[in-house]
Amino acid sequence: MKTAPSKAPTTEGNRLDLLAIAAHPDDVELTCGGALIKMVEAGYKVGVLDLTVGESGTRGSVAVRWKESARASKVMGIAHRENLGLPDAGVEHQRDYKLKLAQRIRALQPRSVILPYWEGRHPDHYMAGQIGYEACFLAGLAKLPLAGAPHRPHKIVYASLYVPTVLPTFVVDITDQFEKKLKAVLCYASQFSPRQDWRNLFPSRADCRERLAAQGRFFGDMIGVRYGEPFVTREIAAVDDLVNMAVRSI
Ligand SMILES: [Zn+2]
């Protein structure tokens, strides 16, 4: 396991309200950064666990991406961020990876977890969703060879923004958090092209704003707000109050 060059804050024995797990540094910012900022603003203790440092990425060295990730975490105001050190472009169904992640879930004790949607273009992204789910389950099994008390998150939701053809179960209004989300994403300077080229997988900084705004507007429109981020749940929502449901008005 790789260790961070800068000392990561620890929350051992100090449980998180919400933990976002994703494959590469910047995935969380892009797919659910606005929602994380919103939860921080609501007073929740929010953490991020990146599975890889993105060392196989076309742009940016490991050291540079660490620094960018630390800066983005500060912008979002999250309480804890760590990296599991799995191989980039090698997030696979391996039992030792799942146990390693389950161990950290036990240590951080998140009440809710955000995972990447379980299908998509990049194998690391959908694999992170799949092994993330299994690690959450394993973390709750008492007899596994893991340290710490068994812990299973109360709720898992999937960030589906990378797969915009998937109909979300719900959308989080991030209108008030959009500028901060953009600022956090732009911390990853190594991932942006100096060239103005909208066809490039790595957009320029100017293109980044347009792209994030277009995505945000698309999902925001679904609930009648300016900017939104989409999420999917596997389980059906249980409703007690049909009069005050948090759904878009007709
Ligand atoms: Zn990624």
Molecular structure report:
By secondary structure, the protein is α/β, with parallel strands linked by helices. The protein contains six helices and seven strands, in the order E-H-E-H-E-H-E-H-E-E-H-H-E. It has helices at residues 27-41, 62-76, 95-108, 123-138, 178-186, 205-222; strands spanning 18-22, 46-50, 80-83, 112-116, 155-159, 170-173, 228-232. It has a seven-stranded mixed sheet, with helices on both faces. The radius of gyration is 18 Å and the shape is globular. Bound molecules: zinc ion. Zinc ion binds at residues 23-24, 27, 122, 125.
Gyration radius from CA atoms, angstroms: 18 Å
* Secondary-structure content class: alpha/beta
SS element count, helices: 6
What summary fits the major beta sheet? Answer: 7 strands, mixed
Helical amount among residues, as a percent range? Answer: 25-40%
